[in-house]
Specification:
By secondary structure, the chain is mainly α. The protein has twelve helices and no strands. It has two domains: 129 residues, no CATH class; 159 residues, no CATH class. Helix 2 packs across helix 6, helix 3 crosses helix 9 and helix 8 runs antiparallel to helix 12.
Length: 354
């Protein structure tokens, strides 16, 4: 009798839980958002630890010291140093040029306004007939001051929180990397305590496959971004375009976002060049669009797809679907997630067929 009641009771409980979720979607969403905001620095720290572990493992394998604690410390310091050096190089090459362009735009604003007025006059627009009520504009600007102050306070608060989250994430990542073997043993011990041996082996296999695929993907992604940056600087030098080095580095960095990331660098690069020569900016846009098409449809699917074991058509599909679901982060994670699912499904299908 108890067995006969077990299934209906389960269905009733499932229906009640579903009813509760449907009627409290907003409340549940706010709760999940609150939990995510609290845990975000630790999630980010785990991501930093995963990325830093790649150069750290390389240095550890290169050193091979007898004292493993000393080897771990040196490898971690070298990994952090390499990442910081790369960030400093990128920032020092790109940021000064952006500041110079902003200053140039501010200084040349009257010139640009005159050019726009001349263009409108040449198009037959009577500039004198355009009535501009300066007093009304002034009043509107004064009315927007409270909103501007509120926006400024919110902006400063968000920047302060972002900086705080960043440093907490870095510290958390260092703790993870400094004691990663013991943390892994604790996770395995926890699984062995609550799960049977078959499930533990299955979860361990999935975790190992996922880790290897993500590691290989990010390594190859950096290599592919380097290729794109190198081709960009070569083409810009041949075309004699200005800011070849900083723009190419920027495009290489933004290319870490699969397929479409380089377009972000194109926009910033075009702003830099247009202040020097608008025609060269147009040439630059055409050049990078052609290069991006070659990279996105030929180089990327072949290099990345072949390296992680995912066919090129599914690489493009993963980027498009990931972007539509999760924006930039979805584009970045879409390929390794799709590769993991593809590999696990292929392995399962082959095992069932065999």
């Amino acid at each position: 009798m108890k067995k006969d009641l077990k299934k209906p009771m389960f269905l009733i409980a499932f229906a009640l839980i579903g009813y509760f979720f449907v009627n409290n979607v907003t409340l549940i969403g706010d709760g999940l958002k609150f939990i995510f905001n609290i845990s975000f620095p630790f999630i980010l720290g785990g991501a930093f630890a995963f990325i830093l572990n790649i150069p750290m493992s390389f240095f550890a394998n290169s050193l091979e010291l007898k004292n493993k604690k000393l080897e771990r410390a040196i490898s971690l310091i070298l990994a952090i140093f390499v990442v910081l050096v790369v960030l400093v190089i990128v920032i020092t090459l790109i940021l000064p040029e952006l500041v110079n362009v902003i200053n140039l735009l501010v200084e040349n604003t009257p010139y640009y306004v005159d050019k726009i007025m001349d263009f409108m006059s040449n198009m037959g627009v009577d500039i004198k007939s355009i009535n501009i009520d300066m007093n009304s504009i002034k009043d509107q600007m004064i009315n927007q001051i409270p909103n501007l102050l509120t926006f400024s306070v919110t902006l400063v608060t968000n920047i302060a929180k972002s900086i705080s989250d960043f440093f907490i994430s870095i510290i958390f990542a260092i703790y993870i990397l400094a004691d990663k073997e013991r943390l892994l043993r604790q996770v395995k011990k926890l699984m062995n305590a609550y799960l049977n041996k078959k499930k533990v082996n299955t979860l361990s296999n999935i975790g190992e496959v996922t880790c290897n695929i993500f590691k290989k993907f990010f390594t190859v992604q950096c290599f592919e971004a380097t290729i794109l940056g190198g081709l960009c600087i070569l083409g810009m030098l041949l075309l004699r375009l200005p800011y070849a080095v900083p723009i190419s580095i920027l495009i290489g960095v933004t290319a870490l976002i699969p397929v479409v990331g380089a377009f972000i660098g194109v926009g910033i690069g075009a702003i830099l060049i247009v202040c020097v020569n608008p025609m060269q900016a147009l040439i630059f846009i055409i050049f990078v669009l052609i290069l991006q098409q070659i990279e996105g449809n030929v180089i990327y699917p072949r290099v990345v797809g072949k390296s992680v074991g995912l066919p090129g058509i599914w690489v493009l599909a993963a980027v498009i679907l990931g972007g539509s679901l999760g924006g930039i982060l979805g584009m970045l994670l879409g390929v390794p997630i799709a590769t993991t699912l593809y590999y696990l499904l292929k392995t399962n299908v082959n095992s069932k067929i065999n």
